[in-house]
Design a protein that fits this description.
heterodimer; A: alpha/beta; two-stranded antiparallel sheet; globular; disordered N terminus; B: 347 residues
Chain lengths: 358, 347
């Protein structure tokens, strides 16, 4: 089966005339920050500053910025394990995100979650999730809570749940779509289609490779958008969120982009063809958007360089902050096992006696 | 498939002192009380509304509270348990019914990888205040897939609390505590307990999770059990009383956290210990209790700790085979006699 989302054509993206230069410039600043942050994270992983798994948003920056730009502060965001860029775009401090990667106490999750588990209650980013699709039922339940507590309307809260192309094949996705369709929940499921689930192409994994169509058996409408264009992504996401708020109907949005690197930092992606790699490079959304802004006179190339340099400087500061931050204390190991203190909860370390009777 | 419960509970209404009601009624009344008390509490599960629950625990509640507070779900355990988790992250207090503990396996990723982990993994920023009520238990000819006691799977997981009330009074007090707790609580029920009657005090009763109870004091042997096993344990203990053997019975009540000190304090006094459990022997609850006694009361023991647990076989349908595989009073009496004889106990 041919993958209709695959294209090697260089994209021509123009800018809509009604966008303010300040907004466009802001989007590029954020894309540049995510790009610089992820490249540095890769470097820090190679230098063993970062442990565990580390999945990067390289190639996904336009989708990251477009989706987060569509969200209101009152909305809730659930993300997969490829979550660093979303954390930054949603407003987490680069230093605190880097500190989380470094496992430091100043990290956004106190160093307890790492790369896959960026979380900030105040910013309503309710987690990156390490288990593929693990976020989908809870995100659906967050939408249930929104509809439990409030009426539909343009000022309603809504939930956005991100997932990868491979995740559309798991049961939790389909069970959740059924619940959201049945209960009219205010949620937008965004499928980040980067054409590969680890190394498996979409067409080899999905019996319906037009992923935005996968909601039809639950009467959930879907739309595909060019994930390399932040403005197209933002506008499509805004429309879907509006439907969630006002009509209390779930929607699917499929954003297509290319993963510029392997599945995670340690994956050399030898399974990718030369053509695929060329296509990915030619669609790279960061230089593409930079070029659009310069071509349309929003910024000149000196200003673009300045933005890139500023992003680099912020990431350098973030690394310094993470480096200088203290490790979590071993005496706090058991602090968050339970939210409500409970009798007889074990605080034994390996080798400690388990019975405390004298 | 599930078998529908037959309900013929008689409700004794009285405002004076404790009433005698069934375990089922205690659960139903507690759910109602908590729904009235806190509008963030809601019930969610399969067939709990229109059908009033496979075992009729939620009878009458849809009619009284409506479909927002009593949510019937499609057959989608992973989906609706996960949805309950998400709603709890935003501050609702879902009480989930999973029709039997066997079906919880379909939701185990959401329970173990998500509900149990979120508070710790996100650095204490979010709570998951939810209860999962679910019955275990064999003995109803439901065959291998519908007769399991899988509580130990959950008791293994930090971040979860697992409680297992054995009486109507504890059903009320532990369910109240579980609903008001800010952590995910697995609330173990048992098909064999729903019609059990007992005194239940009126008014608010909130148990302390994590505490075992010595429900019958004794001096000669400690008998440890939980949930449905407690019914048999107490019967057998009474029987031995008439033979001049004083058995102390400990009801674990909470499987995580585990009240090791109460168990060990009892065994230090009696010097003999037998564990009666419905789950499988190998890696079962009794294995953990036995290891605990080995560490906390070794010098006081007069005989090896013995466990009476289910035979290691997918539970067959045929009644004689089922009866042979499930631990019963006769098995327990035999083992207690062996322990007494091994220590030359004078009767």
């Amino acid at each position: 089966m041919a993958d209709k989302t695959r294209s090697t054509k260089v994209k021509a993206q123009s800018l809509p005339g009604n966008e303010s230069a300040e907004v466009l410039r802001g989007y590029y600043e954020q894309m540049a920050l995510v790009r610089a942050f992820e490249l540095r994270a890769s470097e820090m992983y190679a230098r063993a500053k970062i442990g565990g798994y580390c999945h990067l948003n390289l190639g996904e920056e336009a989708t990251v910025i477009g989706l987060v730009a569509a969200l209101e502060a009152r909305d809730y965001l659930y993300v997969s394990y490829r979550d660093h860029g979303y954390a930054l775009a949603r407003g987490m401090q680069p230093g605190a995100v880097m500190a989380e990667l470094f496992g430091k106490s100043t990290g956004v999750s106190g160093g307890r979650g790492g790369s896959m588990h960026m979380f900030d209650m105040d910013l309503r980013m309710l987690g990156g999730y390490g288990i593929v699709g693990g976020q989908i039922p809870p995100a659906t339940g967050a939408a249930l809570a929104v509809s439990y507590r409030s009426e539909a309307g343009p000022d309603s809260e809504a939930v956005m749940c991100l997932l990868g192309d491979g995740t559309t094949n798991i049961g939790a996705f389909h069970e959740s779509l059924n619940l959201a369709g049945l209960w009219n929940l205010p949620i937008v499921y965004v499928i980040m289609n980067n054409k590969l689930g680890m190394g498996t192409p979409v067409a080899l994994a999905a019996a319906e490779p037009d992923l935005y169509q996968r909601g039809w058996s639950y009467r959930i409408e879907g739309e595909r958008v060019d994930g390399d264009d932040p403005i197209a992504v933002r506008d499509a996401a805004r429309k879907a969120l509006e439907i969630a708020r006002v009509q209390r109907r779930p929607r699917i949005l499929e954003a297509t982009s290319f993963r510029l690197r392997g599945h995670s930092v340690v994956d050399p992606a030898r399974y990718r063809s030369k053509e695929d790699n060329e296509a990915a490079r030619s669609a790279d959304p960061v230089p593409l958007f930079r070029g659009r802004l310069i071509d349309s006179g929003v910024i000149d190339s000196a200003q673009a360089d300045e933005i890139d340099a500023k992003a680099e400087a912020r990431v350098t500061e973030a690394v310094a902050f993470a480096d200088d931050s203290p490790d979590p204390k071993v005496e706090n190991l058991f602090d968050y096992t339970y939210a409500t203190a409970v009798a007889n909860a074990s605080t034994a370390l390996p080798g400690d006696p388990v019975v405390t009777l004298s | 498939m599930t078998n529908e419960a037959k309900t013929n509970d008689s409700i004794q209404k009285s405002d004076d002192g404790p009433r005698v009601i069934t375990y089922r009624q205690a659960l139903n009344e507690t759910l109602r009380t908590e729904l009235l008390r806190d509008e963030n509490v809601y019930l969610i599960g399969e067939e709990i509304g229109v059908f009033e629950g496979s075992y009729k625990i939620t009878a009458g509640l849809l009619k009284e509270f409506g479909p927002k507070r009593v949510v019937d779900t499609p057959i989608a355990e992973e989906g609706f348990v996960g949805a309950a988790i998400g709603s709890a992250m935003l501050g609702l207090r879902p009480v989930v019914e999973i029709m039997t503990i066997n079906f919880s396996l379909i939701a185990i990723d959401q329970i173990v990888n998500h509900a149990a982990k979120m508070h710790a993994m996100f650095g204490g920023q979010v709570n998951v205040p939810m209860v999962i009520r679910t019955p275990g238990g064999g003995g109803q000819q439901l065959a291998a897939t519908h007769s399991q006691n899988l509580e130990v799977w959950y008791a293994h997981i930090p971040g979860l609390k697992v409680v297992a009330p054995s009486t109507p009074a504890d059903a009320k007090a532990l369910l109240t505590a579980a609903i008001r707790d800010d952590d995910p609580v697995i609330f173990l029920e048992n098909l064999g307990l729903y019609n059990l009657k007992g005194e239940v005090p009126d008014g608010e009763q909130v148990a302390e999770i994590g505490k075992a109870a010595v429900v019958k004091p004794g001096t000669d042997l400690t008998l440890i059990s939980y949930s449905r096993g407690m019914v048999t344990a107490l019967e057998v203990a009474k029987q031995f009383e008439s033979e001049g053997v004083s058995i102390e019975v400990v009801d674990l009540r909470s499987l995580r956290p585990l009240d090791r000190d109460t168990v060990c304090a009892s065994v230090r006094k009696t010097s003999r210990a037998v564990i009666f459990e419905d789950d499988l022997l190998t890696y079962g609850i009794g294995a953990e209790i036995s290891a605990t006694i080995g560490e906390g009361a070794f010098d006081f023991l007069d005989a090896p700790v013995r466990r009476v647990a289910a035979a290691e076989v997918p539970l067959p349908y045929a009644k004689p085979l089922e009866l042979a595989a499930i631990p019963d009073a006769a098995d327990l009496i035999k083992v207690i006699r062996e322990v007494l004889d091994a220590t030359r106990f004078e009767r």
